[in-house]
Amino acid sequence: MKITVRNVCTDFDSYRAARVKSLFNAETGANFDLDAEIPIDDNGWSLGVIVGPSGSGKTSMGGQLWGGEAFADFDNWPGDRPIVDAIAPGGDFNEVTAALAAVGLGTVPVWLRPFPVLSNGEKFRANLARVICDAPQRVVIDEFSSVVDRQIARFGALAFSKSWKRLARDGGNQCVLLSCHYDIIDWLEPDWVFDTATGKYAGRGLWRRPKFEVEIWETDWRYWPLFEPHHYLKVPKMIAATNYVGVVDGEPVVHMAQGTRPGLREARGCRLVVMPEWQGSGVGLRFLNAICQMWLDGENRFRKSMPTLFHTSHPGLCAALRRMPQWVQVSAHLYGGNKARSEASMKKSRSSGKSTYNVGVGYGGHFRAVQGFRYIGSRP
């Protein structure tokens, strides 16, 4: 595909304009020319990147690929409804929540907020989720990752790349990202890149996603206050739990707690939380599997092999666990338990001295599709 950009504006002759021309030996600022040859006419690609400094012609090139109508429009978010309602209003609820989780916007309370009140990083991920749900056949995204923290940009790029390529495998969809940031390219692992600064095109297979190591700390509840604001349930801490924290370069990034069921027959995992800036990096599932495998191998304070039972109502996490051979689904309850019976049981325990926790209401009575999974490990 040959792209020719010829941008022309008025050549002003005001005093200040003339003085600038004289001082800096600038003939004119009215013309911008760019010629590029990008071999992308075939349909054997799904994700491309045009990168370069501001003012180097990226947007003009993007407009010539498939016309101006191919640009993603992120300016028409409604301000009177939460993003979970604003994305694909007539679509499937599970697809919307799965898209939000897939692009790294996994903090559930954020789904209940309107777009205008979100942070820049949250808006960035919400926009990407919207593109995934809309699933356009061809789309150009301008200013990709321009206004967000660079760590959020990198992991957001990683999450979007995985989601878009999964979508494109079935529908042949194509997306071109326009960005002035080079640090996201390796995380995207695109099929091609064109650099407007050098005029060079590079094909697929030249980029490899950077790796990072997660150190696992066995601890107690001391780190939980860091993660609790990002957990979607407000419930008491598990009694006699073993806590684990995943740490990258000294920074806590993911948390999980492990308890045991009566008779030490199996473990019960809960409180899995990934810090917002690390959502989309893939660290959550890997950390969960690593902890569960440790317990299955008997690497716990009981020195006993135990499978792990894990419950969640997060649609994206449920879908991911169903895809993994290390997990089997064992339950799926649409409604919570009897709330009055739960409250009476807790009051009885408190009056008998078995519990000192002052809980005023019982659990249950909710419309929350809690699903249970058991970790069985990798099959040979």
Report on this structure.
By secondary structure, the chain is an alpha/beta fold. It folds into two domains: 46-202, P-loop containing nucleotide triphosphate hydrolases (Rossmann fold, 3-Layer(aba) Sandwich); 215-375, Aminopeptidase (3-Layer(aba) Sandwich), CATH 3.40.630. It has helices at residues 15-24, 58-66, 83-86, 93-102, 108-111, 120-134, 150-171, 185-188, 224-227, 283-296, 315-323, 339-351; strands at 2-8, 31-37, 47-51, 138-141, 174-179, 192-195, 200-202, 215-219, 242-248, 251-260, 267-274, 308-312, 327-333, 370-375. The protein has a seven-stranded mixed beta sheet with strand order 8-9-10-11-12-14-13. Helix 6 (120-134) packs parallel to helix 7 (150-171). The mean pLDDT is 88.
Query: Approximately how much helix is present in the residues?
Result: 25-40%
**End-to-end distance, in Å?**
48 Å
State the name of the first-level CATH class of the largest domain. Alpha Beta
Q: Which regions have little confidence, pLDDT < 50, spanning 5+ residues?
A: none
Per DSSP E runs of 2 or more residues, the count of β-strands stands at 14
CATH fold node name of the largest domain: Aminopeptidase
- The number of helical segments is 12
How does the major sheet shape up?
Answer: 7 strands, mixed
Q: Which H/E pattern describes the elements? A: EHEEHHHHHEHEHEEEHEEEHEHEHE
CATH architecture of the largest domain: 3-Layer(aba) Sandwich
What strand order characterises the main sheet? 8-9-10-11-12-14-13
Task: Draw up the topology in text.
Elements (H helix, E strand, L loop, with lengths): L1 E7 L6 H10 L6 E7 L9 E5 L6 H9 L16 H4 L6 H10 L5 H4 L8 H15 L3 E4 L8 H22 L2 E6 L5 H4 L3 E4 L4 E3 L12 E5 L4 H4 L14 E7 L2 E10 L6 E8 L8 H14 L11 E5 L2 H9 L3 E7 L5 H13 L18 E6 L5
Parallel strand pairs: 3-5, 3-6, 4-5, 11-12
Antiparallel strand pairs: 1-2, 6-7, 8-9, 9-10, 10-11, 12-14, 13-14
